[in-house]
Design goal:
The complex is a heterotrimer of chains A (about 750), B (about 280) and C (about 160).
Chain A (H helix, E strand, L loop, with lengths): L12 H5 L14 E7 L5 E7 L1 H5 L3 E5 L34 E2 L5 E7 L2 H10 L1 E6 L6 H4 L14 E9 L2 H6 L3 E12 L8 E7 L2 E6 L4 H12 L6 E4 L15 H13 L3 E4 L2 H7 L2 E12 L5 E13 L8 H9 L8 E10 L13 H19 L3 H8 L6 E2 L5 E2 L4 H11 L2 H13 L3 E10 L7 E8 L5 E5 L8 H13 L6 E4 L17 H28 L7 E3 L2 E4 L2 E4 H10 L5 E8 L6 E10 L5 E11 L6 H21 L27 E6 L18 H18 L5 E2 L3 H4 L2
Parallel strand pairs in A: 1-12, 8-29, 10-11, 14-15, 20-21, 27-28
Antiparallel strand pairs in A: 1-5, 2-4, 2-6, 3-5, 7-15, 8-13, 9-10, 9-12, 13-14, 16-17, 18-26, 19-20, 19-25, 22-23, 23-24, 26-27
Chain B lengths: L6 E3 L4 H8 L4 E4 L5 H6 L7 E4 L9 E3 L3 E5 L4 H6 L1 H6 L1 H7 L5 H6 L2 H7 L6 H8 L2 E6 L2 E6 H4 E3 L2 E2 L6 E8 L5 E7 L9 E9 L3 E9 L9 H7 L6 H13 L11 H23 L1
Parallel strand pairs in B: 1-3, 2-3
Antiparallel strand pairs in B: 4-5, 5-10, 6-7, 6-10, 8-9, 11-12, 12-13
Helix pairs in contact in B: 10-11, 11-12
Chain C lengths: L1 E2 L5 E7 L2 E7 L5 H8 L18 E4 L2 E4 L12 E3 L10 H8 L9 H14 L5 H7 L11 H15 L1
Parallel strand pairs in C: 2-6
Antiparallel strand pairs in C: 2-3, 4-5, 4-6
The chains are: A alpha+beta (about 750), B alpha+beta (about 280), C alpha+beta (about 160).
């Protein structure tokens, strides 16, 4: 039996359905609890901190402030993908020292023997603040009148113009031009599991259990920040209850917990409350203002404009990605050769921004798809036609900003997808409904996205004495099912039963190396590293079989667990047992597989209805995607369902409202994450003739696709339903009500 | 996430509970679906919690000749399952099924909802529409307050600190049509705007009672404006006019659910749609 | 029974068929009692506003959010958590696995407990009734369609 391409059941669901899962807060270890005193002001000077009352609360062991927790270096940015030389920023120290710069900025860490007492003690820490002027809106921050960081002398953290082709010529040659302003408002990833960390320091060795997507990267960063060699740090990723990119971020709170455990010589743990989770990772929040030059037949000649991206008060590990990648992906799958985007990232006195599922590509896709639809409307052309006119028809293709798109038939997929998803039929039906008075709309959007990020991934395959197989991966699946996909790929490569395969990940002491699961790269990079390792292991097994059969290795044939030569056979198990008794014990291969980005693409359609109260409901969501080789269609489809539901959230429900005081003005109760009632019915298909990536697994990645394109499709459907124009997310009921 | 320290009293009887309540700084606990979240956010910091849940005598649904008496500790889920409530108090039945979610309905109580008086809660509007009689008891005796006098402001009622709401009496309105309509942005939320309607419709509108939630600092019933509809022949124009007029009486708070103007539009459209559906169809 | 501020109270709670006697502060939430005092970490904490349902357990047969209950309220009560099986997978648990109704698994215990309660009240729910019955349980990963399928599947298996 082969496994790749089939909806194989997930390997480890038993523990999740029986409550035997172990997320970081479930780990039963004798430890102290930590909580944080946080700033109630967006910007203030810390005049003094009096911890004496807090220390009197029973069970309180310590209250530390900045002076008690010194680091070698502050937390930096993700240098694998971001260039610090291009950014003006302050590395993040574990606790605020002289000033607090956003509501929620941690000022002191309280540590005690009981969670409830810690919470009581937090109320008893007296911080004397002197309120300072704060700048909340990113447009105002650009003026540099109120500075978030005096030391930087400006609020502009990054200012670069991305140029391709000749945009001035394009505008000269245009028949028409329009102005556009496209905004993605602030969101919160809000995985179901609020993040947490446990730190234990013993005899110079640090063990950290961490709700993270990147245990090895975290280890490296902790090492750098604390000045402790990485060899003395072990980071263990337990079960992680979702992340969506937010748990690549390394928080100052995490560092404060680790430092506290070192100072106290006792394990210390912190699990964020939901309110804390909501300020520890916010996302999106950017506006593109520009002009589009086009011909009357809808050919887009050029795009120019300014992108402003809010960073919040501090750069985080992952926020620098957005201002760089968004401009690069704006041209999308279209032949637009002339583009100039000035990208400015700006600080405000608000909670820091991190990446969130899609990390730049949802913004870029929303911008270009809104441009396509706006131009289509100007010209009275339909959405499919305008995209056909502009679609790239030859791959590989180098976009005007230097990105090299790999394999793909974008135009073909658009046509197939539109047909398969019955777009025209839906549009006609919606029109008929509107004639009857119902505000029903259908919207489509196309995406080309960049995924499968390198630079490498780790894979190890080991055959045990009994012939079972252990796969150790640098990927870090946390719900997507990547471990199952990896097992399928290895099972096919070794032609053994998938039940014989165990996949392990997430512990830096066990996994030699790893980048992690983010950026839709597990099926591409991690599965490929495992596949190549498996191929090499099979070669080794063949060599041992040759010895057993007393032939040259070239004469050995292998098929489904049997090695054969000259009519004699030995089984997989026999070879494994023999290998371990031989003079070269250990059948394993371990490697780092270099890799680079790949470009999946697809067309998605949303059907919405708006009622008399401006309440929109996405009733159906359909997807047609080319994600390269589909390792497990059920798991891939699951990513489409989940991403699309987040798209419903982004398009009509979710908004991290920051009020004038810089406070996050919504709790989890009014930050509206879709329930089963708001979620649509899904139909998800994968291209009949997919285009494989260059990764050995052939996969391109699907984890982020639906959130990348979903908001554009849903917003287009809202326009269809109401006849209004919306170039932002979320679209609120007051904008939809008659 | 962590309530502040408080004491706890488990009463042996209703009299015992009322006696304890006299002590001051005591918060009675019924279903806890509003109280416990407020304790977790430390919005409330009482000295004692008085647990009413052991008082099974407060949990009942008693049909009488023309009314039904419901004990304060009756859960939403019990009212939804009750054949008596479905038959005799259909508006209450419909509204009870729309509160929160199933888990909330298994715990939350009618007494808790009315005495908490959240301006966006469902049952206060229902009580107003029914002209419910609300019984308050203390060591000094009992008194009955009309629903229209009970709700005073946001989370503020006629209930004194030493009183417990023990019972709600609602009339059996034979021959009435009803509707409880609740507009939410997301399932399970408090009402953005909610509307409770009871109407007796013949040739004319013989009786009409309309109450709203989410549009003011408390549940709102436009008693005066109802007279516009009373004894009138129901026409679309009349209903439309009423819908426009009724929004002029209120000033809904702007919040993350929506702006004041938006909520007024919702109120207008909802009123018109519900009146059309219930009254025009009945006539 | 009076417990003064700062004092603890002894409670007896039957959880998954076993009686436990413990001393707790009145303010201790039931979810913390189950997870920290009894070590039953199957029930999860997902929010602080009683919105997400990850903490759903059965109390005297009814589904409740254990983060919105004081442990003292459970004195004398029977609680069933996700760990309350007999060692074999219940039809609902099988159905969740077979229908890919979980991804990160964090909402899953609460979702299964609520599905169990829903099916006990309504053994043959329509799709709409399932979505209505589960909207007190938030999932950020699956988009719910597979969860609905799992509940429908479980319903069929249980009626077979």
């Amino acid at each position: 039996m082969t496994y790749v391409g089939k909806p194989i059941k997930r390997l480890y669901d038993d523990k999740f359905v029986t409550g035997k899962s172990t997320y970081v807060d479930d780990i039963q270890i004798n430890s102290l609890y930590a909580g944080f005193v946080r700033s109630p002001y967006a910007h203030a000077r810390i005049k003094s901190i009096d911890v004496s009352d807090a220390l009197k609360v029973p069970g309180i062991v310590a209250v530390f402030t900045a002076k008690d927790l010194q680091v070698k270096e502050g937390i930096g940015i993700w240098t694998t993908y971001e260039d610090p030389k291009q950014w003006k920023f302050l590395p993040r120290r574990p606790l605020a020292e002289k000033e607090v710069k956003y509501v929620g900025d941690p000022v002191a860490i309280v540590i005690g023997t009981d969670k409830y007492n810690v919470r009581d003690a937090i109320d008893k820490v007296n911080v004397d603040y002197e309120k300072l002027p704060a700048v909340i809106k990113m447009e105002e921050a650009l003026e540099d009148k109120v500075l978030v960081h005096e030391e930087l002398k400006t609020n502009v953290a990054f200012d670069q113009t991305f140029n391709g082709g000749n945009v001035d010529e394009a505008f000269k040659n245009a028949d028409r031009k329009i102005e556009v302003e496209v905004t993605n408002n602030r969101l919160i990833p809000n995985p179901m599991e609020p993040r947490g960390i446990i730190s234990r320091y013993e005899g110079g060795f640090l063990t950290i259990w961490y709700s993270t997507q990147v245990p090895h990267t975290a280890r490296a960063e902790f090492s750098r920040v604390l000045g402790i060699p990485a060899s003395r740090i072990r980071v263990i990723m337990p079960d992680v209850g979702g992340a969506f990119g937010s748990k690549v971020n390394i928080l100052p709170e995490d560092v404060a917990v680790v430092l506290s455990s070192i100072k106290l010589g006792r394990p210390v743990r912190w699990t964020a409350t939901r309110s804390e989770e909501m300020i520890s990772s916010e996302a999106r929040h950017n506006t593109f203002k520009g002009e589009v030059a086009f011909k009357t037949d809808g050919t887009i000649l050029g795009i120019r404009g300014e992108l402003i991206v809010d960073m919040g008060a501090y750069l985080t590990y992952t926020s620098p990605i957005q201002p760089v990648i968004i401009p690069l992906m704006i041209p999308g799958p279209y032949k637009i050769q002339n583009i100039s985007v000035r990208s400015k990232a700006v600080y405000t006195n608000t909670p820091p921004i991190t990446m969130y599922r899609g990390a730049s590509r949802p913004e870029a896709t929303f911008i270009i798809e809104r441009i396509m639809s706006n131009v289509a409307d100007e010209l009275g052309i339909d959405d499919v036609t305008i995209r056909e006119r502009n679609m790239i028809t030859n791959t590989p293709y180098v976009n005007p900003l230097g990105l090299k798109y790999d394999s793909g038939d974008y135009l073909g997929l658009l046509r197939e997808g539109v047909k398969k998803l019955e777009y025209e039929k839906l549009k006609a039906w919606a029109k008929a409904m509107r004639e009857k008075g119902r505000k029903v709309g259908v919207g489509m959007a196309f995406y080309l996205e960049i995924s499968g990020f390198g630079p490498w991934e780790f894979g190890e395959v080991r055959v045990t004495e009994t012939g079972d197989v252990i796969v150790t991966t640098g990927g870090t699946p946390h719900g997507q099912g990547g471990e199952t996909g990896i097992a399928q790929v290895v099972a096919d490569e070794l032609q053994i039963d998938i039940d014989r395969i165990k996949v392990i990940w997430g512990d830096t002491e066990v996994v030699a190396s790893g980048m992690g699961t983010y950026g839709s790269r597990t099926a591409a990079a991690a599965a490929s590293a495992a596949k190549v390792a498996a191929t090499k292991v099979l070669e080794k097994m063949k060599k041992f079989a040759a010895k057993m059969l007393k032939v040259d290795v070239e004469e050995v044939k292998y098929s489904s667990g049997e090695f054969e030569a000259n009519g004699r056979k030995v089984s997989w198990n026999e070879v494994a047992e023999f290998a371990y008794k031989s003079d070269e014990p250990g059948v394993f291969e371990q490697l780092i597989l270099p890799g680079d980005v790949t470009y999946p693409y697809g067309v998605h359609i949303a059907v919405v209805e708006v009622d008399d109260y401006g309440i929109a409901k996405v009733s159906e969501y359909k997807a047609y995607d080319d994600i390269g080789v589909v390792i497990n269609p059920a798991l891939a489809e699951g990513q489409v369902h989940g991403g699309a539901t987040q798209a419903v959230g982004q398009a009509i429900l979710e908004e991290a409202i920051i009020n004038e005081e810089g406070q996050l003005a919504v709790t989890y109760a009014d930050y509206l994450i879709p329930t089963a009632v708001e979620a649509p019915k899904f139909e998800s298909y994968f291209a009949e003739k997919p285009h494989a990536s260059q990764y050995p697994s052939g996969a391109k990645g699907v984890g982020e696709a639906a959130l990348i394109v979903g908001p554009a499709a849903i917003v287009r459907a809202l326009e269809d339903a109401t006849g209004k124009r919306f170039n932002h997310t979320p679209v609120r009921p007051e904008e939809l009500i008659e | 996430m962590y309530p502040p320290e408080f004491g706890y009293y488990k009463p042996e009887s209703l009299a015992d509970a009322l006696d304890f309540l006299k002590g001051g700084s005591v918060k009675p606990l019924a279903g806890g679906q509003s109280l416990i979240p407020m304790l977790k956010f430390r919005i409330l910091q009482p000295k004692f919690i008085l647990d009413l849940n052991p008082l099974k005598e407060l949990s009942y649904i008693k049909p009488e000749e023309n009314t039904v008496k419901i004990g304060a500790l009756t859960r939403y889920s019990e009212m939804v399952k009750s054949g008596i409530v479905r038959r005799d108090l259909p508006l209450l039945h419909e509204a009870s099924g729309k509160v929160g979610d199933m888990q909330v309905r298994n715990m939350g109580t009618i007494g808790g909802s009315l005495s908490n008086a959240d301006p966006s809660a469902d049952l206060p509007a229902v009580a107003l529409a029914y002209d419910a009689k609300i019984k308050l008891i203390s060591t000094q005796g009992e008194r009955v307050v009309e629903a229209r006098d009970f709700f005073k402001g946001p989370f503020t009622t006629e209930l004194r600190e030493d009183e417990i709401l023990s019972e709600v009496e609602l009339p059996i309105l034979k021959g009435y049509n009803h509707k409880y309509a609740k507009i939410v942005r997301r399932a399970g939320d408090y009402a953005l705007v909610g509307m409770a309607l009871l109407a007796k419709v013949g040739e004319t509108i013989e009786d009409i009672r309309i109450a709203y939630t989410g549009v003011s600092d408390k549940a709102y019933r436009p008693y005066e404006l109802e007279k516009m509809l009373l004894n009138s022949k129901p026409t679309e124009d009349l209903l439309r006019k009423f819908s426009e007029e009724v929004t002029k009486e209120v000033n809904p708070p702007s919040d993350s659910r929506g702006s004041s103007d938006y909520k007024k539009k919702v109120m207008k459209n909802l009123t018109f749609n519900v009146l059309k559906e219930v009254i025009l169809r009945a006539s | 029974m009076l417990v003064r501020p700062g004092e603890k109270v002894k409670i007896k709670v039957k959880v998954n068929g076993i009686w436990y006697e413990r001393e707790v502060e009145p303010r201790k939430l039931l979810v913390h009692f189950l997870r920290d005092d009894l070590g039953l970490t199957g029930t999860k904490i997902g929010c602080d506003t009683s919105t997400c349902g990850a903490c759903t357990v059965l109390m005297n047969g009814k589904s409740v959010k254990s983060c919105t209950l004081l442990a003292v309220q459970a004195d004398g009560a029977e609680i069933t958590t996700i760990e309350g099986g007999d060692g074999k997978l219940h039809a609902i648990q099988e159905a969740f696995k077979d229908n890919f109704a979980l991804q990160c698994g964090y909402c899953t215990p609460g979702m299964i407990m609520q599905s169990y309660y829903l099916l006990s009240e309504n053994p043959s729910p329509s799709e709409e009734e399932i979505r209505e019955g589960l909207h007190g349980n938030i999932c950020r990963c699956t988009g719910y369609q597979n969860i609905v399928k799992a509940v429908q599947d479980a319903s069929r298996r249980l009626r077979a």
